[in-house]
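lol ok so funny story. i was supposed to be doing the assay writeup but got distracted and ended up predicting the structure for this chain instead. priorities right. anyway since i did it might as well share w the group, maybe its usefull for someone
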Amino acid sequence: MNLIEKRDSTDINIIEIHTGSGNFLIDGGRSHKDRVITVFYHKPKGFSPQSPVMMVIPGAGRGGDTYRDAWIEASEKHGVLILSPQYAERYYPEFWSYNLGGMITEVELNEERTAMISYELNNNSDEWLWADFDRIFSEVKEVLQLETDSYDMFGHSAGAQILHRMTLFKPDNNAHRILVSNAGWYTVPSNHDAFPYGLKGVSVAEDQIELAFKAKLIVFLGDEDNEHETRGHLVRSQETDKQGLHRLARGKYFFNQSKAYAKEQGSDFNWELKIIPDVGHDYKKMSKAAAGYLYGIQW
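and the output, tada:
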């Protein structure tokens, strides 16, 4: 991984995509030109300009290569182009620069580093991660002459945290279907809970939330990601435990609270809840289930 980050800077933003697996580098965007994002890809043998595109957002380990690899079988079977951006800790060192997309800064944690004592909102949306995904897709579309104008997204654990917040705070994106898989905790559409646990204190227009609820977002949960699951780090605090004591409960809470908020606001609500049997906090199995849900057997 370090070898990739040390490649000559002239490689940045030179995108070459060959059949099979590989990677390319892009800069961090308008406000982060000094940062590098490595995009791992898999281009299937049956690729054509009409092929669908899946963007896979890694968990807290940031392993774009391993998350890409989990989709190779589905890529070849269904002819899907896979893109998986890796946000190296060298440039995005803390969970608030990744899971929270850079929406907060100046974070002070308690001694156990289990809860935030204080932080400041970053109101400069140009510094948030959410625009990166459309930018990556746009660059790839031009290089490969893709005929599609949209792409699907799958994020597991920390990746799911990124995707549901992207949906809330940048709903004007080109994503088609957004699968939010086994997130540890959520920003819940609620005016009673302070950001980042709710919407209180953050500037968000009512029509923006209405647009978010119209997205094809699927809360994708493993039914064994429950109180018996020991894999992955689960944040425990007063704010997160309000959502539930494990990921399955928190995902259901997020979906149900969002649905209730939409009803209260008189908004359309296009989100879905899918619970996958016999799967815990396992990105490989959830990736396989997601591929079946999107491109093969419908659950």
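Residues 2-295 form a domain with the Rossmann fold fold (CATH 3.40.50.1820). Confidence is low (pLDDT under 50) at residues 1-9.
back to the writeup now i swear
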